[in-house]
Amino acid sequence: MSAVQQIDAIIVGAGFSGMYQLLSLRDKLGMSAKVLEAGSGVGGTWFWNRYPGARCDSESHSYMYYFSKEMVNEWEWTERYPQQPEILRYLNYVADKFKLRPDIELNTRMQTAKFDEATNRWLITTDKGQQYSAKYFITAVGCLSSANLPKIEGISDFKGKWYHTGEWPHEGVDFKGKRVAVIGTGSTGIQAIPVIASQAAHVTVFQRTANYSLPARHHKLSGEFKKYAKEHADDIYEIMTTNTNGHPFHMQDRSIFDVSDEEREKIFEELWAQGGFQFRAAFKDILTSQEANDKAAEFIRKKIREVVKNPEVADLLSDIDHPFAAKRPPVDDHYFETYNRENVHLVNLRKTPIERITAKGVKTSDQEYEVDIIVFATGFDALTGSLVKMDIEGRQHRKLKDYWSAGPRTYLGLQVPGFPNMFTITGPGSPSVLCNMPPAIEQHVNWITNCIKHMEEKGLKVIETTEASGDYWQEQVNAVANETLLPTVKHSWYLGANVPGKPQVFMPYAGGLARYTKVCNDVTAKGYEGFQFAS
């Protein structure tokens, strides 16, 4: 073991969150900080997620930092919805521009983080044998970064190659001439399937849960739009940070029932042709009224049946068992059109479930599908997975994975009771995955940075939230979720239902980014209500 290095803050994860937190502590507050990153490069989610078709579902001019006007003006996006390589180039550009790399330890996985009550400091060890003593411990591990591999019998028997979309080989996969099975039709499957089908000899898609998806209407950005986005950056940021979902457009303040049937169809048609999440923002009650939601859902099902030529396949793809947008709807690039290809076959796992993986492929209850490659597009252990996999121990030897065994408990998604001086960026209990991530990340990092600045100026050694604050905030998370249709989906990863054995607790804050920001600002204005300090 190496000597213990004394440092102000340790940050885990070098994605959007970790890099901005490093910059904020180091350059704004003049503190010593270091980022521990398991990958061989920066980028977080976008370093790991390299599966075919990996693309952001937020428009590029909104999927970026806005804290630096110079950076907004310098960077040029090329596409409406940026693909993984372009986002990774952007994050590398940020790391270089602000000279962040000297303070980022790559290829370094945090092994343990333990709070020492005698010194009020976090003792952190890495897989390289490094030891750190830090006043502040900040997790920036992302909401969708812990791959969820299903426990299907026989994976080790398979003689071909298998991959998970969340742990894709950096050298890529050659599908040419191959028979491919894709298991899962959530966001990653919906992005990957069209690309794989364009390359492979044959693709068998195994669908358990049919999903809504909105067309991206993807295109290259015009010079005119790029100029507009730069000139109106302040206006765009104002819209993103004062609305519900952090996107660069407002939710329309009208009910589905404020307009005639003909007018509603016209609005839906126009937004369907436009593409993207603005369809979801057409009416304010789509996610609060089942009757309103039914109108939007039926429109999308009608579109699926129009696109997919085989009526039986169209029926399977449109047989969706949950309200529209009650699970995050993907934005796709010709997903439904892919089922018109002769080399694509859809299997309904509700009718014929997978029994096991065999040496030759995938065996369902009625037949064996022989394939050369299996792709698991089965998503992530979202929001809590990356945190509970780490060995984090707070006050009185409280382990995070044990404390959260019945579901996550936080205050504002920023701190966990019993874990002093530890902050979680976009943790469970914050808007996180229910909105465009960069503005949510900036809000969280700014709040944490201002809180630490307050502590340093006042000579405070410890900040921690209380059990009562954690209980109160979980009640708030549940209350705002229950204002919507979100908790009605019992198989949603918002509740952890995609991971066997995971507690079923609604995890993100559904009240929206603007409402959440006001709560955080009010807490600060009241002297950090819900937190306790010690000097």
TrEMBL record:
It comes from the Bacteria. Its cofactor is FAD. Keywords: FAD, Flavoprotein, Monooxygenase, NADP, Oxidoreductase. The keyword Oxidoreductase applies. GO terms for molecular function: monooxygenase activity. PANTHER family: L-ORNITHINE N(5)-MONOOXYGENASE-RELATED. Belongs to the FAD-binding monooxygenase family. This is NAD(P)/FAD-dependent oxidoreductase. It comes from Sheuella amnicola. The lineage of its organism: Bacteria, Pseudomonadati, Pseudomonadota, Betaproteobacteria, Burkholderiales.
